[in-house]
Write a structure and sequence with these properties.
Strand content: 5-15%
Distance between the termini: 61 Å
Structural class: alpha/beta
Strand order of the largest sheet: 6-8-9-10-7-11
Length: about 950
């Protein structure tokens, strides 16, 4: 095949040119060709295709474009789809000679070798051959900042090769024939000194001295007008030699560029000392080093922006990396603190920073231009012939950094910032996270002392976790321990977890985690500050834009914009699209700040808006999931509360509950603490059906413990009866039968004391279920029958169906299978009439049990499969596991061993995921027995 990117992007095979419809497929191919035969991370491909605005489903969309590209390549070259493979990213295999850019670089390498060997004519021909591969500007057909930066670098490569070709032509004596070409090139590139030097030399050798001198003056004027600088020393010397009529310029001589360079100032190294206890960051170091040019030819300007939260170790990493790279950038290693986030200094403006950097390169103060643009141009000019490394530390913004970036090849800029510099188009970004646990432990041990750490490994692990694995926090904690011989690691852990607070402990000398966080907070806009501190009230582990909008009492779009801004400055993490969370220490800081800056009434109002958001959203979702449940009456949500948009269908609704589950439980606890007792018990009611469907039995128990505590405070006998009933059933499900009976009997007594017959029926139903869990099937049948009579007397057909199922089930448990069928079949009819799919699935499962125990295994399989289909559709994963377990038995009895094995293997996976160890062990034994050879 043949791939072309030195011009319009194209792919050719034996079947002709590949048709690449759509900009995304072309962009994907281009990105892969720019990194031919190397793995390109998914994140980088996403950036190439969508820039800073990838779709929510970017991963799946990328897979689709990869599939289409494979198909496109295979259409013109059989088997070409196999060239594109996935290994932690995508890699496009290119054979030697297939990619025009690779061929160009190879030929340029040969040409340079010929020039260095004193063969200018051969070198000129080789350069010319390489340049013929170009069909215009690189990467025609793709757009965006990602490709724009690459195209600019490739254009610089092309121009460098063109200049070297002309250099070789001049050395070979082809002066006169070059004049016209060089005049056109000088017009196209009016400030490119090397081309103008070539033109001056060619004109002079052609006897056109006046034109050569005029060329210099034109260059001088362009540089002064456009960049505010003077021509460089080499072309200035060439100008003087032409004025003098230097005889060495006549004839075939080495060009200006091949003479020994003007002596420069000795290399300067301003880097701070490397960190002696630098620990971990192997992946990040590899990422930084991988960005450097493979061949070391300096054809690519590398800019790396390292961002992350305060205290995560950005400067430490940048300085450590810079020390590792000094040999590759020998001409200068410069460091400047831009004071984007410091208490002692205002952020340094670019004009002042350029003065510092230029003086570091030997430019005297009286030579510094008085305009920002002119200083930036002089800075780039000074770096043009140097291999220099520049660390721009603690940047406040991309605007502060942009004038300080090198403009020539062979330079590396390392930038650190607490802000994601997404608008710094030419930079690669590396966002630092906290340390992995093992690296955090290693860092603590190196600072505190390996011997002390080794004696208390569990306490060390606890300390670094209490530090949130944040390097600054770990360093401070370890330093405090190191300077206090009487302390143990356990004592330090106790102090960090005590009521005094972690942030107060994480300070020593002039270093403080809280102070670092405060600087980030102070740099925020007022609306961002308010959101940050109010989020300190949020009781859950994460949140979305709707909950944040309710908390702050603002619009959802405005809240989303503020949250994204907090992500950009690393005050929030974003584990998933539209999902946000704090680092643990930042949560503490936000909570401390809100208590200090918001008055009590404001905090109460914010919390009430948040809890109303969760309660009303959950009730809406529960009604959509379980329309047969009797509704509860809620007060209207308070103003400023924005309910979550609910999508109908069990999969989407259950997904919302799955994501928000821990937040809902935390909101319930907050309601109890605040004394909002109605809200607290309503959360318990609302979560009950979800807990049942997902099998969250222990969470259901905890929710109803809070619900009962709130119900007692409310004093309503009906609410108390309901709370006792559900709490008793929750106790039964976790095997705490004594407590179950106590609460269920209290629930029944309260219902009887008020003459509440529906509640009495519900209590008898719950007692039947609880007794069934204990294996007391006869007593369970009595309560189920009592419930059935009460429901029939009330004319409550939907509840009657549930009771019929229970009666049939317990009759079957007593071995009376023929007698069990009638109530179960009647229950199925009623459930279907009332569209109760939960009840229908449960009853079909009961019928499957009866059929299986009656020896009607084929009918049992049918019943179980119907129940299984309903439960899968409902997302009732807890009951899906039970039905799969039951389904395997009739399959095995029918000799359908593969089907039995499949059902039990899936049940085993679900039981393990649900941490139902006893059930998992039992199913494993069933599988082992199934796999035993017949005797």
């Amino acid at each position: 095949m043949e791939f072309r990117i030195a011009g319009p992007v194209e792919a050719w095979g034996t079947g002709g040119q590949a048709r690449l419809p759509g900009s995304k497929q072309l962009a994907l191919l281009t990105a892969l060709l720019l990194h031919a035969n190397r793995v390109v991370p998914v994140e980088q491909l996403s950036e190439a295709l969508w820039g800073d605005d990838p779709p929510v489903n970017a991963g799946k969309a990328l897979q689709t474009y990869v599939f289409r590209l494979r198909r496109t390549l295979a259409a013109v070259e059989p088997g070409a789809d196999q060239r594109l493979a996935f290994t932690a990213g995508y890699r496009l295999r290119i054979e030697p000679g297939e990619l025009d850019l690779a061929v160009f670089r190879e030929q340029v390498g040969h040409a340079r070798a010929a020039a260095n060997a004193g063969r200018p004519q051969a070198a000129a021909e080789m350069f010319a051959s390489a340049l013929e591969l170009w069909r215009g500007r690189a990467l025609i057909g793709v757009s965006g900042s990602y490709f724009g930066a690459h195209a600019a670098r490739l254009e610089e490569e092309r121009l460098a090769a063109l200049e070297e070709r002309i250099d070789a032509d001049l050395a070979a004596g082809r002066d006169a024939e070059l004049v016209a070409e060089l005049q056109n090139l000088a017009d196209e590139h009016p400030v490119r000194e090397r081309l103008h030097g070539h033109l001056m030399r060619a004109l002079y050798r052609a006897g056109r001295q006046a034109e050569a001198l005029r060329t210099f003056h034109e260059l001088h004027d362009h540089l002064a007008d456009e960049l505010g600088i003077e021509p460089g020393s080499e072309i200035t010397e060439l100008h003087q030699r032409i004025l003098r009529g230097d005889p060495d310029l006549a004839g075939s001589r080495p060009s200006v560029e091949t003479r020994p360079p003007v002596e420069k100032q000795a290399a300067r190294n301003d880097l701070p000392g490397d960190i002696g206890d630098f620990t971990g960051r192997d992946t990040e170091m590899a990422r930084l080093l991988a960005a450097l040019p493979d061949d070391g030819d300096g054809s690519t300007v590398v800019i790396e922006a390292i961002d992350g939260m305060a205290g995560v170790g950005k400067t430490t990493l940048a300085v450590h990396a810079a020390h590792q790279l000094t040999n590759q950038y020998p001409d200068a290693q410069l460091f400047i603190d831009l004071h984007g986030h410091t208490t002692e200094h205002e952020a340094i403006d670019p004009f002042t920073a350029l003065g510092v950097l230029l003086r570091a390169l030997g430019v005297s103060s009286d030579q510094l231009p008085h305009e920002l643009d002119q200083r930036a141009a002089l800075w780039r000019a000074e770096l043009a012939d140097r291999k220099a490394l520049v660390v721009l530390d603690n940047a406040a913004s991309a605007a502060q950094v942009r004038p300080l970036l090198p403009g020539a090849a062979s330079c590396l800029a390392l930038i650190t910032s607490r802000r994601r510099l997404a608008d710094l188009d030419t930079a690669r970004t590396l966002s630092l996270d906290v340390l992995p646990p093992q690296d955090a432990i290693a860092l603590f041990s190196r600072i505190a002392g390996a011997d002390r750490a080794a004696t208390e490994p569990e306490a060390v692990a606890e300390v670094v976790e209490l530090c949130g694995f944040l390097p600054l926090a770990i360093r401070i904690a370890a330093a405090r321990l190191h300077t206090r011989p009487a302390w143990t690691v356990t004592y330090l852990a106790d102090r960090l977890s005590s009521g005094r607070g972690k942030l107060a402990e994480l300070a020593t000398g002039d270093r403080s985690v809280a102070a670092a966080f405060t600087l980030s907070y102070q740099d925020l806009a007022p609306d961002q500050q308010r959101m940050f501190r109010l989020l300190g009230l949020h009781p859950g582990p994460s949140f979305d834009a709707h909950s944040a909008a309710s908390l702050a009492g603002i619009g959802v779009d405005q809240a989303g914009s503020i949250l994204e801004g907090l992500v950009d400055v690393h005050l929030l993490n974003q584990p998933a699209p539209d999902r946000y969370r704090f680092h643990d220490l930042l949560r503490h800081h936000a909570n401390t700040t809100v208590l200090a800056e918001e008055h009590d009434a404001s905090r109460q109002q914010a919390l009430r808006r948040l809890l109303d958001f969760y309660l009303h959203s959950a009730v809406t979702g529960d009604r959509l999931l379980h329309p047969q449940r009797p509704p509860i009456v809620l007060d209207p949500p308070v103003p400023g509360c924005h309910l979550a948009p609910m999508t109908e269908g069990p999969v989407a609704l259950l997904a919302w509950f799955d994501v928000e589950h821990h937040c809902l439980l935390a909101a319930q606890q907050t309601a109890l603490i605040q004394g909002w007792y109605a809200v607290a018990w309503q959360f318990a009611w609302t979560l009950g059906a979800y807990h049942q469907r997902r099998g969250h039995v222990h969470d259901d128990l905890a929710a109803w413990q809070v619900g009962l505590a709130a119900a007692i405070q409310l004093g309503d006998p009906a609410i108390r009866s309901t709370a006792h009933r559900f709490l008793g059933w929750a106790y039964a499900r976790v095997g705490r039968h004594i407590e179950a009976q106590e609460h269920l009997q209290q629930a029944l007594a309260l219902a009887e004391s008020t003459g509440d017959q529906p509640s009495q029926a519900h209590c008898h139903q719950a007692l039947a279920l609880a007794l069934g869990h204990q294996g007391q099937h006869q007593r369970a049948l009595e309560h189920a029958t009592h419930a059935l009579h009460l429901y029939r007397a009330l004319g409550a057909a939907a509840w009657e169906a549930d009771a019929l199922n229970r009666v049939g089930w317990f009759v079957a448990q007593l071995g009376r299978y023929d007698q069990a069928r009638a109530p179960l079949e009647e229950a199925v009819i009623l459930h279907r009439r009332h569209h109760n799919r939960d009840g229908e699935a449960s009853t079909l499962d009961s019928l499957g049990f009866v059929a299986r125990r009656s020896g009607q295994h084929a009918q049992a399989v049918d019943y179980y499969q119907q129940a299984l289909a309903l439960r899968r559709n409902l997302g009732a994963t807890y009951e899906v596991a039970n039905t799969l377990d039951a389904l395997g038995h009739p399959h095995a009895a029918l000799g359908q061993l593969d089907e039995a094995r499949a059902a039990w293997q899936e049940a085993l996976q679900l039981y393990r995921a649900q941490r139902r160890t006893a059930d998992a062990d039992r199913v494993q034994q069933q599988l082992d027995a199934l796999n035993q050879p017949a005797t």
